[in-house]
């Protein structure tokens, strides 16, 4: 009886989390995949099976390709910059610098602010002529710029906000990893006359690779997941220059009410993220040092 109880107890403890995960993650994902092969029901008209018509439409959809291109540029711009900035900030606040507690709080503060609040703050920064950025650049003779209204600058403006918002969150993981590195390693390197850059490149960075892999996966997911700032600041404009893939899914599903086509777009988005994660694990996991 006791042995049977010991075998059942772990499964009972896992049951609540399993049910929540199935109800809110796995079942919706399966239903989304199934719905992508049906037509969106209208009124009393039931959904009809259309096969791969939505995926064919997607291939010929210029807005989809524009959103995919924007998202790729957005990810390539925000992910490496956020990780590098987070690592730099973690190294700074992990040192014996004065006021490091205040610096830690300052670096982490953007993380606790809601993205909608942050987007509204940065709207003021980007206001042509009156915004903080134009006021500062005006001191050096630069003319005012419509940062969010120019197709050449709007995506970069959103990327700058995302880097500022996410770097502090990733810094926490790097700070925890740095504090796990034994001080004896740096002491031995100092006795051998090793420079700081060489020690970081040969010792610190390899030991941070498990954290980097974890942060990289989360950063890529966030690059395709976060759209609050797009909704508040640009709504995908001008001329879809800032339309990201998930924002396009949101528009198709809730503005055009074409849930079936939105399901097909979601399936493609999930497959893209799964492929990226698989490549990341396949490449970086070989370079990870867990001890």
UniProtKB/TrEMBL annotation:
Gene3D superfamilies: MetI-like (1.10.3720.10). It is a multi-pass membrane protein. PROSITE patterns: ABC_TM1. The keyword Transferase does not apply. It comes from the Bacteria. The chain crosses the membrane at residues 12-34, 72-93, 105-125, 154-176, 205-227, 260-284. SUPFAM superfamilies: MetI-like. GO terms for biological process: transmembrane transport. Pfam families: BPD_transp_1. Keywords: Cell membrane, Membrane, Transmembrane, Transmembrane helix, Transport. InterPro entries: ABC_transporter_permease, MetI-like, MetI-like_sf. It is found in: Cell membrane. One of its GO terms (cellular component) is plasma membrane. Residues 68-280 form the ABC transmembrane type-1 domain. Belongs to the binding-protein-dependent transport system permease family. This is Carbohydrate ABC transporter membrane protein 1 (CUT1 family). It comes from Pseudochrobactrum asaccharolyticum.
């Amino acid at each position: 009886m006791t042995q049977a109880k010991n075998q059942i107890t772990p499964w009972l403890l896992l049951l609540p989390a399993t049910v929540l995960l199935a109800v809110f993650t796995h079942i919706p994902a399966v239903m989304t995949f199934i719905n992508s092969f049906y037509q969106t029901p209208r009124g009393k008209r039931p959904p009809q099976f259309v096969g791969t018509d939505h995926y064919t439409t997607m291939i010929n959809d210029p807005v989809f390709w524009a959103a995919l291109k924007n998202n790729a540029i957005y990810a390539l711009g925000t992910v490496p910059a956020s990780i590098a900035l987070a690592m730099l900030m973690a190294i700074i606040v992990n040192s014996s610098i004065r006021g490091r507690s205040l610096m830690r709080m300052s670096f982490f503060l953007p993380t606790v602010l809601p993205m909608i609040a942050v987007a509204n703050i940065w709207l003021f920064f980007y206001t042509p002529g009156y915004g903080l950025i134009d006021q500062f650049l005006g001191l050096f003779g630069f003319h005012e710029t419509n940062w969010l209204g120019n197709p050449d600058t709007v995506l970069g403006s959103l990327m700058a906000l995302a880097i500022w918002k996410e770097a502090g969150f990733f810094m926490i993981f790097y700070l925890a990893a740095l504090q796990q590195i034994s001080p004896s390693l740096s002491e031995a390197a100092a006795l051998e006359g090793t420079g700081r850059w060489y020690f970081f490149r040969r010792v610190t960075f390899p030991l941070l690779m498990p954290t980097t892999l974890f942060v990289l996966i989360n950063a890529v997911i966030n690059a395709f997941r976060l759209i609050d700032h797009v909704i508040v600041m640009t709504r995908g404009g001008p001329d879809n220059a800032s339309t990201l893939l998930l924002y396009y899914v949101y528009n198709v599903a809730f503005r055009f009410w074409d849930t079936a086509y939105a399901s097909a777009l979601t399936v493609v988005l999930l497959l893209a993220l799964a492929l990226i994660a698989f490549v990341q694990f396949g490449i970086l996991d070989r370079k990870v040092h867990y001890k």
